Amino acid sequence: MTAIAHVQTGPAAVPATADNLATACALCSHNCGLRVDVKDNVIVEVRADDSHPATQGYSCNKAYAIAHYVGHKQRVTHPLKKQPDGSFARISWDQAISEIAAKLNAIRAAHAPRSIAFAGLGGQGNHSAGLGGIPLMLGLGTPMVFTALAQEKSQHWLNDRRMIRGRNDIYLVPDKHHTKFLLLMGSNPHISNQGANPKEAMKDIFRDPERRMVAVDPRITETTRLADRHLRIKPSGDVFLLLALAGVIVQENLQDHAFLQAKAKDFERLEAMFSRIDIARMALLSGLDEADIRATARELATIKPAAISIDLGLEHGEHNTLTSFLVRVLSLMTGNFGRKGGNIFVQLFGPPMPFLENMTQALASSIEAIPALLPIPQFPPAILPEEITTSHPDRIRALVSDGANPLSSYPDTYRFREAFAQLELLVVIDPAMSETAWMADYVLPAPTGYEKWEMSIFPKDVIAPQVRPPVVSGPEEALPEVEIYYRLARALGIAPAAPAFLYTLARKADTPLGMAAYLAAVNSVAAAGITGGVGSVVARSAYLTYETLGPTLPNPMLAYVWLAVLGYAATRRDQIIRALPELKGVRNPLALALMLFRKLVDHPEGALLGHYEFERNLEYYNGFKDGKVRVWFADYARDLERLMGAEPEKVDPAYPFVLNGGLRTGFTANTIMQDPAWRKGKGPHAALYMAKEDAEALGVQAGERVKIRSRRGEVFAPVKIDAGTQPGHLHLPNMLGQRYPDPVTGELKQTGVPINELVDLMDRDPYTACPHTRRIRVRVEKVTEEAA
């Protein structure tokens, strides 16, 4: 067997015992800065890091359990290949890469590039996987990638594309720290920790008599108790509330006319529609008091500045694209769109990416991929099964799942099992032997986010990327994802071997002149003899840089960070100087890039590299030449008109309850945590929250197990009587039912409730296919322990 080209031979080795190491929490998107102590290669102490430029000493309780993410009984320690009898055999990396590349090349030769797809590409605070995976996608020419982000939030990027010609690298957030009025919808940040230092932000509003907060939530929560007004809405009634707010503002002439005149295009068409909204009908449909709606609308319109915050409660509810749109419209109507204290755009670290004009459509549904954070269009996971099972000749035949667990975290588990059984090749790259890994043809071990060089790139209210070294050593045969993708690219023939002179130039790229010479040479080599278009050139450039520049840096992964810093320094000088005025005299962008790169590497706790100009936030990110926000879209208008005339929904006696399949608690972290021992306190943790009235009607007591049945499947859970839950409404924490070895028998046992077995993937948003996991129609039955 021919030896496979490589750059790294294994995970980075670090001292087995060390104190006060800078890192970050990888259990959610906020990536709070941490300090850890390590003893005998185990994280033994975790503290919030006061020196982190964004989180500044804040972290929630989840961060203190990161050792359970690193050390558990399901670590994959060497490459595995499935055998004919369903078992797995240990194989070498050379065999794994050679065989996978051969199978992928066979599919490429016989079918369209889109027959090969990717899922995941890293997640949470472990984003380096995408740095290696995206070039491989470009080199293969496939547009098919499915991400968790596209399962939750792609409606926001769709609306920003439509309304301001927004690029992939921006994200609209509420400026909670400067707002005077906050309308909070679809989240409980006191527990879910949404936003920067959320508990302090909520308490600051609560304590300040000049600031107000209105919380919209069907349930009484820790956050609603802090609110000045709690709008206890019906499940998925949010779109009707937002329509009512718009109607009141227009009908009472409270809109910011000057701002709309200067910043909006065709608002008069929306204005005419909103003038016809029946506020009383919207109050009925949302389950709210009309007087409360009117009071909230007046406060939103007259208190300056005002912000609207939404999260998964809306993003996984019905009409989630329209609610995202209406939030933006309300912010615009009140003069708070792209303004300090209102709703502001934050951005990904790096250069501005080009606006992608034409999006790939799914074969079965015609749903369009949407660029979201990553500079590539992404599809929602809900459509993945039908893209595999369709009869179209270009259907997906091979899938690389990287840092994702589709059989646990994607909607409608049954359909995913059926679809994955039809794949010709399933490759899983993961630190853990997940539910999806058990179905794979090959399982490739990766280090966790604490065993390799990593980076956190989610946008925050300051531009402060964190590039962090490993704090513990991983399994000897685990390879960072960037190395796995490089080896595949070489074996597939996508990346050529670098000529010797590139290595020589790379060693001199630590000066502006040397950097310029090196970049010119890389681009020349990458473009030589190319026939595959721009994507192929980008792929070759990326892998040539990784191969030649990478070994000159503290870790080869940093070659990709080096490129991102170069792009940032060349295009975002204004942001840099606002944060680092001492660099104003550095006019050469290459010299500036080298200084910023050194600052990043020298500060593993994170480095402040830029500040936004909040006073002209909208103008900075609006991609339309006339600077106007587009607000009239015929398809949205059609659907909003229909909702304005909607009738109250009738309860289906076969499925009388509405289940919120994703309640946030102090111990929910999606599927990244395998070992349930990380959950502290009195359980049960994965319980069904139910109103006392409903429990009495069903004849069940707290702690008794019940069967929860939807049209797609059934699950079992113990009952928790919850005084904050409305009758007819249920909640399940998003502990997604991973299987973990029993501490006594070693048998795999479910540690949570597999909510996605209840979800119908066809119950989804018509624009983005984001699933309605926060509104699942179910029935509940009392069962005996034996039946459960």
TrEMBL record:
**Species classification:** Bacteria, Pseudomonadati, Pseudomonadota, Gammaproteobacteria, Moraxellales
Record keyword Isomerase present: no
Q: Which UniProt keywords apply?
A: Iron, Iron-sulfur, Metal-binding
Q: Which domain of life is it from?
A: Bacteria
- Tell me what this protein is called: Anaerobic selenocysteine-containing dehydrogenase
SUPFAM superfamilies found in the cross-reference section: ADC-like (SSF50692), Formate dehydrogenase/DMSO reductase, domains 1-3 (SSF53706)
Q: Which organism is it from?
A: Fluviicoccus keumensis
Q: PANTHER family from the entry?
A: TRIMETHYLAMINE-N-OXIDE REDUCTASE
User: Which family does the similarity line name?
Assistant: Belongs to the prokaryotic molybdopterin-containing oxidoreductase family.
Per the database record, which ranges form the 4Fe-4S Mo/W bis-MGD-type domain? 18-74
Alphabetically, the GO molecular function entries are: iron-sulfur cluster binding; metal ion binding; molybdopterin cofactor binding; oxidoreductase activity
